[in-house]
What does this fold into?
Amino acid sequence: MGITRGKDMLLKLDDGSGSYRVIGGLRTKSFTLSSAAVDVTTAESKGWRELLSCGGLRQVNISGEGVFINDAASDQAQSLFFSGEHGRWQLVIPDYGTLSGPFQLSSLEYTGPTRGETTFRMSLASAGEITFTNGSIA
It folds into this structure.
């Protein structure tokens, strides 16, 4: 991944018709790709740890904070949180690719300072197979 502007990363939510809309004006966002290793070391491993190829659980976690700019997307995110249903989300990272798939909205926080705009913070946890597409889909 080359140098890219953080402001160009987009978090989108499927509106139910297969069209993705930007969830909000995210000021900070991050994502973590992880895979749990499965240790298959035996006495015959000669003192070296051995891991099972393709044996671990993979997961993606996404978090971000900002301001909602789309009332329909804001309402949909709230609905997903309270229903516990999984939404189809996309994280678009310019010059890297797009992560797409089902995610659980695991936390949703609102903050409203007296002299400022209301902001939100959310965390998403992958809830099924996540696909990766090279390039940028805006």
